[in-house]
Amino acid sequence: MTYTTLSLTLIFVLIPLLLSKTLKLNLEKDTVIATIRSIIQLLAVGYVLKFVFDSEHIIYILLMITLMIGTATLNARKKGKAIKGITWKVAFTLIVIEVITQGILLGFHIVPATAQYIIPISGMLIGNSMVLSILFLNRFTAEIEASRDEMELILSLGGTPKQAIHTQLTNAIRASMIPTIESQKTIGLVQLPGMMSGQIIGGADPVQAVQFQLLIIFALLTTAAISSILIGFLSYPTLFNERMQIIKNSISQ
Amino acid sequence: MISLNEVAISFHNVCYEIDHLSILNNINGEFYKGKITTLVGPSGAGKSTLLKMCNGLLSPTTGDILIENKPVHFYEPTTLRKSVGIALQSAPIIRGTVFHNLSLPYTLQHKSLLESDAISFLEDVGLDHTFLQRQAEDLSGGQKQKVSIARSLLNRPKILLLDEITSALDPTSVYEIEQLILNINQKFGVTIIWITHNIEQAKRIGHYTWIMMEGQLLETGESKILSSSTNGKIQQFVSGVQQ
Question: Which chain A residues have a beta carbon less than 8 Å from that of B81?
Fold first, then answer.
């Protein structure tokens, strides 16, 4: 695709701009900013990736993954500001996910140990983990705020913090995992996944594209489970002190 | 003169602050074993905060609380909370049947509650066995409160803290709960600390009373001080509540 052809796709940006203007949705500014940012960010990342792929140096691969984890952490932590040390908890979770998934993929030689595979797969898994962390933290704080009486009741009857928060924790873990599981049930029937579509458009064999997509889908299940469970179990102890009391303001958003 | 052995809970210069805002200011006093002490005072007086400190749900910013002559931090929080039970105004109910709610203290200790024991506790609070399998959320306010009290009793507490448990109930339910608490106090010798806004109830039920305002303990003594206090603030509060 040439840049001239690509510029024609801006028609897809003009349509929502016109609709927003006509219906006074007041989304024009955000749409323009989003468009400009996506052009700059993706072009920049395209050139960076080209450089990293060409050099094939481990340091550049690690730098790219660090950048992804750093950005995802900063984005996800906003939803759990009230939880003490949330930045490190999210960062640790993302690192664990990266180590486990890449450990399996590279350890069993499922994918070649090259930047071309490691970076895009890491991007998809870290990105998904970031969304899951945000979903989990949103639901977790809402669950706790809505059931403070129940938590206090359990503590007052001699329960431990883990017992007091068990229902809220499992509800939040389930709620954040369900979208991943549900979307996988209809995959291929309702929507063709982005990566698979991209490969097919790029001229790859559709069966080969499906195989890679399945790899990603299975890895996403692990990502979903580990992200929410790890963040949950790392976060809940910070809501209580050593006397098993709910720390005031620890759970307000 | 009351001996140390007769003191269930004592407060020594207890203060509590949140965000530099004083909630309790230099509280000193005792709750006596086997007696019913009522805490009265306007909203914001710090009564609920004081109650939660006795159960270890909150800790004083400064000062000491002794439970049976031992500092509150001497006890493991879970042990303390089993020994000092609390029933709240909102009577929080967990989703499920009355049996499920009654079993909660046992479930938390990884034990099972026998149905016969559950029925016995239900009967102690004036509810018959037919309530056992009813959904707790469908009960009336008074019935929920009785289940909440029965649930607190399952830990066999020596001290029972009651936070405005009758304030949202009809007169019949209020009477039933009062009789129930009197029975628990007399039959099991449980020390009762009861927050109430109802001055008549405090006079009717309490052996002793604490009158609190703006985080301070204004006066303590036998419940008759509610009628005989010479403190202008107390007289104003009592007459205001009774009007």
Answer: 155-158
Binding-face residues of B in 155-174 toward A, CB within 8 A: 155
Looking at residue A188, what is its pLDDT? 78
B9 lies in some domain: yes
Would you say B217 and B37 are in contact if contact means Cβ atoms under 8 Å apart? Answer: no
When CB atoms are compared, the residue of A156, A159, A243 closest to B86 is: A156
User: What six digits make up the tokens of B29?
Assistant: 């006093």
Q: State pLDDT tens for residues A129-139.
A: 999 998 999 89
Cα dihedral A213, A219, A221, A224, rounded to 10, equals: -120
Q: Does B152 contact A at CB distance below 8 Å?
A: yes
pLDDT tens profile B182-201? 999 998 899 999 999 899 99
Which 3 state secondary structure label does DSSP give B71? strand
Query: pLDDT class for B4, splitting at 50, 70, 90?
Result: low
Query: Which stretches in chain A have pLDDT values below 50?
Result: 252-253
Q: Is residue B215 part of a domain?
A: yes
Residue B110 lies in a domain: no
Whether A149 has its CB under 8 Å from any CB of chain B: the answer is: yes
Is 80 exceeded by the pLDDT of residue B88?
yes
Domain containing B24 equals 4-95+158-242
Distance from the A123 Cα atom to the nearest Cα atom in chain B, whole angstroms: 41
CATH code, domain with B218: 3.40.50.300
Partner-chain residue, chosen from B58, B92, B108, that has the shortest CB–CB distance to A159? B108
Single-letter amino acid code for the residue at B33? K
